[in-house]
From TrEMBL:
Source organism: Lichenifustis flavocetrariae
InterPro entries: UPF0229
PANTHER family: UPF0229 PROTEIN YEAH (PTHR30510:SF2)
Protein name, as recorded: UPF0229 protein M8523_05585
Region (Disordered): 67-110
Pfam families cross-referenced by the UniProt entry: DUF444
């Protein structure tokens, strides 16, 4: 999204002042997009829409005379109520300012509203997000070439015509073929004209005219620009390093996952799916659902299947390790994983899950994000802190000191988007938009 400052320069606005305004306007638009997206449904999230920005937030601070206070002297018209020395009481209705006044019915200035297209909406939402530690590990076979200058050619598009190289070739050819110079022709014509006017040396005049005729014929045989002089800039497709990445989406669909929890998990994965497809051109996404068994499924099954069962988290981790070693070797791929669960797990599987995560999953991954979805219980609403789940305590012990492991909890759909941004926010980026 490009924001253009079309304000007049009557206030002496400098370039730095305008840049601060543009950064502030973009930050406000991003904040409005994030607030607007909280209550959207999954199927409508990637659509554009109308957003609004408070008009007061776009105004720039400026120095002005205070409407009250200070020592003033002035001449006022006569009146029937006050005489010299009286103290004029303050207006009971307040105000007294020099700014715009509101109407008696309470109406004021509306917010600034505008409509964003789908591309503008998603660009603002995902502007400061990225996959952490994405490294260039291999040369991909598709979408991995870029055009580079590769000399000149004798044929090509008129848009690629190299005027400098063409004129250089023309000059070299004219020098090599001894093409007469225009200065020599002008001097010869001037001498012929002088001799013709004087009429003293007819023989010399005929000789000079013969020489001029010969030079003009030579000029026709050696043109100023010849087709063999023309050169076009040539471009060649050169392979470039492409960062290949794969995202494993692990979702718990056991009986302990309520509809509210599944909705939170689906919202997170829908947002992740749109983010990856929007920002990266060469990213594979692997969907794994698990109960007491895990299996790789397609996108439609992942988001809409109603299967349920017991809970064995290690089955999903085992399936991920198996697929990664079979299809995505870590020497060539950046491997990422995002797991969503309610935190419940079989008591006999906790130790195995911790061992698989430490020894099998984390050594493969560039980044592992765990999202624990919960219910809006009465205890939470009353201000009590809910007890940590078994899986959360297990993962928390592993995550201590690890920079490639992140954990978050969500209990309400409004928390999905802030948590997602926290997990994938670009390092060193300030969320405030305007630097201090």
């Amino acid at each position: 999204m490009n924001i253009i400052d079309r304000r007049l320069n009557s206030g002496g606005k400098s370039l730095a002042n305008r840049q601060r305004f543009l950064r502030r306007a973009k930050a406000l638009a991003q904040k409005a997009v994030r607030n607007h997206s909280k209550d959207r449904s999954i199927k409508d999230f990637d659509q554009g829409g109308e957003i609004k920005i408070p008009v007061d937030s776009l105004r720039e601070p400026r120095l002005h005379r205070a409407p009250t206070g200070g020592h003033r002297e002035g001449l006022l018209p006569g009146n029937k109520k006050f005489v010299q020395g009286d103290t004029i009481p303050k207006d009971k209705q307040g105000g007294g300012g020099s700014g715009a006044e509101g109407a008696e019915d309470g109406d004021g200035e509306d917010d600034f509203r505008f409509v964003l297209s789908q591309d503008e909406y998603l660009d603002l939402f995902f502007d400061d997000l990225e996959l952490p530690d994405l490294a260039k590990k291999t040369l991909a076979s598709t979408e991995s070439t870029s055009l580079h200058r590769a000399g000149y050619s004798v044929s090509g598009s008129p848009a690629n015509l190299s005027l400098t190289r063409t004129m250089r070739n023309s000059l070299s050819r004219r020098v090599a073929l001894n093409r007469p110079k225009s200065e020599d022709l002008q001097a010869l014509e001037a001498e012929i004209e002088a001799l013709a006017t004087e009429g003293d040396d007819p023989a010399r005049l005929e000789e000079l005219r013969a020489t001029l005729s010969h030079l003009l014929a030579r000029i026709k045989r050696v043109p100023f620009i010849d087709p063999i002089d023309i050169r076009f800039r040539r471009f060649q497709a050169v392979p470039r390093p492409v960062a290949q990445a794969v995202m494993f989406c692990l979702m718990d669909t056991s009986a302990s996952m309520t509809e509210h929890m599944k909705d939170l998990a689906k919202r997170f994965y829908a947002l992740l799916y749109i983010f990856l497809k929007r920002r990266y051109r060469h990213v594979e996404i692997v969907f794994i659902r698990h109960t007491h068994e895990a299996e790789e499924v397609d996108e439609d099954t992942f988001f809409h299947s109603a299967e349920t069962g017991g809970t064995v988290v290690s089955s999903a981790l085992e399936e991920m390790v198996r697929i990664a070693k079979l299809r995505f070797p870590m020497e060539d791929w950046n491997i990422y994983a995002a797991q969503a669960s309610d935190g419940d797990n079989s008591a006999s599987d906790t130790t195995r899950s911790a061992a698989l995560l430490q020894q099998g999953v984390l050594p493969l991954c560039q980044y592992f994000a765990y999202l624990e979805v919960g219910r809006e219980s009465e205890a939470t609403q009353m201000g009590f802190i809910p007890r940590a789940t078994e899986l959360w305590r297990t993962y928390e012990a592993i995550a201590e000191g690890g920079q490639r492991f992140a954990m978050c909890k969500v209990n309400h759909r409004n928390e999905i988007y802030p948590v997602f941004r926290r997990l994938f926010e670009r390092k060193g980026h300030s969320a405030q938009g305007e630097p201090a």
